[in-house]
Amino acid sequence: MNVKPAPLLEVTGLNVHFGGTGFIPGLRTPPLRAVNDVSLAVMPGETLGLVGESGSGKSTLGRAILRLGELTSGEIVFDGTDMARATVGDLNRLRRQSAMIFQDPYGALNPRMRVGDAIAEVLRVHRKVPSSRIGSRIAELLNLVGLDAGYANSRPLDLSGGQCQRIGIARALAVEPKLIVADECVAALDVSIQGQILNLLMDLREQIGMAIIFIAHDLAIVRRLCDRVAVMYLGRIVETGPTEEVFTEPRHPYTASLLRAIPDIDPDRGLPENPLAGEPPSPIALPCGCAFHPRCPNALPDCSTGEPPRLGRDGPHRAACILPPGEIRI
Ligand SMILES: Nc1ncnc2c1ncn2[C@@H]1O[C@H](COP(=O)(O)OP(=O)(O)O)[C@@H](O)[C@H]1O
Ligand SMILES: [Mg+2]
């Protein structure tokens, strides 16, 4: 009998709202909807790319999934447990099985702490190895990320940005995670170093088999690295599907606009952080209907009224747009 493998992570109807609880006399201030009714799933060992302009809610979603940030409502089932309603014990398990890699490799490390101590801290907190094995495990982890064991004695300020990011990855791997959320983890690095770190992540994924949510505004990197991609606009996922399909046959005008913004001359070039003309509307005052309609070249009268279109449920490639796929012209 063929049993469909269970997702490692299944997020359903997740909302993260900021503010909006304060009252101006006579006027209720609405919340900022940073993550708005998001549902997604990640299979064990899978790499999901999360893309969208700056401010679309990618980091907020990533942090909420790992319970490193607040959430307003929704379900986050990780390895069978709803972490949105987790007990302290459940959260400890989540901490032992997941990790985040941040954009700023220096900011993520304590500048006064030696690299070895920073890794040892993680090993101790999560009781990953007996005390007698901590030294050798640090050496193993450093080797895994391509650094000599001698780096254990250095401090972050002695290191380059790329070396620092390798340490960030070593710390993440110290928990032996089933899921890593990498938030713009190469955006601050030089292009040549970016390539090295991405190759490292791909090698580690092969070796260790962890799932990765790879947050990036750079579509070229996502195309190279990710099995599937989810495109966010103003807190919502507007399109999701297998990476190649989404890149070659986008079904949401927003995705199509993002792709068009990649310069033709050099297909490997990244995407600027705000590639589209005009500003997205404020997530405090979202437009009626589809939130993309004021910027959408294909918008129909129906797009500006009622509820935003839903992502749909059938098939791996889905978009929240009322236009048939063939009718998107960007
Ligand atoms: N702690 C916070 N308090 C209030 N608003 C926030 C907070 N964090 C993020 N936001 C807002 O939420 C929206 C999404 O932000 P973010 O998740 O950082 O987007 P992205 O990572 O895609 O650039 C933005 O409008 C941002 O200003
Ligand atoms: Mg971000």
From TrEMBL:
<dbReference type="InterPro" id="IPR003439">
    <property type="entry name" value="ABC_transporter-like_ATP-bd"/>
</dbReference>
<keyword id="KW-0067">ATP-binding</keyword>
<dbReference type="InterPro" id="IPR027417">
    <property type="entry name" value="P-loop_NTPase"/>
</dbReference>
<dbReference type="GO" id="GO:0016887">
    <property type="term" value="F:ATP hydrolysis activity"/>
</dbReference>
<dbReference type="InterPro" id="IPR050319">
    <property type="entry name" value="ABC_transp_ATP-bind"/>
</dbReference>
<keyword id="KW-0813">Transport</keyword>
<dbReference type="GO" id="GO:0015833">
    <property type="term" value="P:peptide transport"/>
</dbReference>
<dbReference type="GO" id="GO:0055085">
    <property type="term" value="P:transmembrane transport"/>
</dbReference>
<comment type="similarity">
    <text>Belongs to the ABC transporter superfamily.</text>
</comment>
<dbReference type="InterPro" id="IPR003593">
    <property type="entry name" value="AAA+_ATPase"/>
</dbReference>
<dbReference type="InterPro" id="IPR013563">
    <property type="entry name" value="Oligopep_ABC_C"/>
</dbReference>
<feature type="domain" description="ABC transporter">
    <location>
        <begin position="11"/>
        <end position="259"/>
    </location>
</feature>
<dbReference type="Pfam" id="PF00005">
    <property type="entry name" value="ABC_tran"/>
</dbReference>
<dbReference type="Pfam" id="PF08352">
    <property type="entry name" value="oligo_HPY"/>
</dbReference>
<dbReference type="GO" id="GO:0005524">
    <property type="term" value="F:ATP binding"/>
</dbReference>
<keyword id="KW-0547">Nucleotide-binding</keyword>
<dbReference type="GO" id="GO:0005886">
    <property type="term" value="C:plasma membrane"/>
</dbReference>
<protein>
    <submittedName>
        <fullName>Peptide/nickel transport system ATP-binding protein</fullName>
    </submittedName>
</protein>
<dbReference type="InterPro" id="IPR017871">
    <property type="entry name" value="ABC_transporter-like_CS"/>
</dbReference>
